[in-house]
Design goal:
The protein is α/β, with parallel strands linked by helices. It is built from 16 helices and 14 strands. α4 packs parallel to α5, α7 runs parallel beside α14 and α9 packs across α12. It is globular, with a radius of gyration of 26 Å.
Length: 432
């Protein structure tokens, strides 16, 4: 009896040790992200390049071990082995036709960044956008993020945003000359314009800061010292949503397909804000015919060959584009003409029509891309990809009934017509 009990005890012990050996062998084969030290977290915040405006100097993140673990898990989980994923290819059959490809999340990385114009008070709205971008795209690619502000960013803004972003973060102060009235502007005349627009209840008509923002986004963001190191940008604003997974490198797609500007939403501009914008554009075209591209996108902008402007524009709160194009002599001459004419302050010219007209005139139309597969929301408009199977395959959570593309106030149909692209099946069901 005693011998039998001893054998049972030995069997139990052998089984216990066998289970423990298997446990440790399997645990050691699972890669785990290491906890980052305080100095490593500090290293996520990009250093200030020579000549950058004051206010860019970074400080270390005051975090606990628990916070470092949270930051590591949220922003630096190593990418899993890349599965077979879809990569869009533009064709005459539609804006995109998915083909099977392998995502190169660990391969070639483009010289690109996200860029956001924000204030400290925007923190809890911009973190919503960051989470959307990271979860749907950047956790696979780890691109940097540049934040620009007309006032210095505080440590709360830097710490929170850095902890959420998988790439390096950079924080820049906008030079005063890029966020103020230029010397040639009659400020009394500009004030009277704002008062008149306020009485007529034109949106942002009485705002000075909105005008500074539009002028900065039109002519200066790409000149900032922090942006000089990059070739590509993706503009992100507070409180946006991305509704579908993006399983390929959008920057690489732009490069490989010779695209220089892109959009997801297009619409008509408020006529009251740009009454003389096209006059300034025509002055530029007459002064610089050498800058007007052959086979350009004039058809998107005008129905009469450029005599008048139809007010269509790409909505610029989402843009993926080429910074070298914006730094080109053609774009510089274009912006300088508009800036000299004063419409940013004597009217209320927005950066969306300014960018759109430039893309339509200075680029070949084939260099402009519609990202049908980037499902996007910025109040009050939604782009939800047309096509049930695509939305299922890419884990989309947008309501196709909210899609703005084919509504009467959208200009996307005009872009399709210009590019001779077939509209996607089912688009009729999403019209007004």
């Amino acid at each position: 009896m005693a011998a039998g009990s001893a054998r049972i005890v030995r069997y139990i012990l052998f089984a216990f040790f066998g289970v423990m050996v298997l446990y440790f062998m399997s645990s050691s084969s699972i890669p785990r992200p290491p906890l980052r030290t305080t100095s490593e977290l500090k290293g996520k915040q990009g250093t200030t390049p020579p000549g950058a405006p004051a206010g860019d100097v970074q400080a270390p993140l005051p975090v606990t071990i628990e916070k470092m673990a949270e930051a590591s898990n949220a922003a630096s989980v190593p990418a899993a082995p890349a599965p077979a994923l879809t990569n869009p290819k533009q064709s005459n059959d539609g804006p995109t036709a998915s083909i099977q490809a392998v995502a190169e999340t660990s391969g070639e990385r483009m010289n690109a960044t996200f860029v956001t114009l924000a204030r400290n008070s925007d923190l809890w709205e911009i973190v919503k956008s960051i989470r959307q971008v990271e979860d749907r795209f950047n956790r696979k690619f780890h691109y940097d993020w540049v934040f620009l502000n007309d006032k210095p960013f505080d440590m709360a803004f830097k710490n929170v945003t850095t902890s959420l972003i998988s790439g390096k973060t950079h924080y820049g102060l906008i030079p005063e000359e890029h966020w103020s009235f230029p010397a040639h502007i009659d400020t009394d005349k500009a004030r009277r314009v704002r008062e008149d627009m306020a009485q007529r209840k034109i949106i942002y008509g009485d705002s000075i800061s909105y005008r500074h923002m539009c002028r900065f986004e039109s002519g200066f963001f790409f000149q900032h010292p922090l942006m000089q190191q990059f070739e590509w940008y993706w503009r992100v604003e507070p409180s946006i949503e991305l509704y579908c997974d993006i399983n390929y490198d959008t920057f690489k797609y732009m490069r490989d397909n010779n695209k220089k500007y892109s959009f997801v939403l297009s619409l008509y501009e408020y006529v009251e804000t740009i009454p003389t914008l096209w006059d300034s554009v025509k002055t530029f075209m007459n002064s610089h015919p050498e800058h007007i591209a052959k086979d350009n996108g004039m058809e998107f902008l005008s129905g009469d060959g450029g005599e008048s402007y139809n007010h269509c524009h790409f909505w610029s709160n989402f843009e993926i584009g080429n910074l070298n194009w914006l730094r080109s002599q053609a774009y510089t001459d274009y912006f300088n003409q508009l800036d000299k004419d004063g419409g940013f302050f004597y009217e209320r010219w927005g950066d969306a029509p300014v960018h759109s007209i430039a893309a339509g005139l200075l680029l070949k139309k084939d260099e402009i891309h519609f990202f049908n597969d980037i499902a996007y929301y910025h109040v009050p408009f939604t782009h939800c990809p047309t096509g049930d199977q695509y939305r299922l395959d890419h884990k989309c959570h947008c309501n196709p009934k909210d899609n703005f593309d084919w509504k009467g106030y959208s200009c996307t149909s005009r872009f399709f017509d210009m590019m001779k692209m077939e509209k996607p099946a089912g688009y009729q069901d999403q019209k007004d």
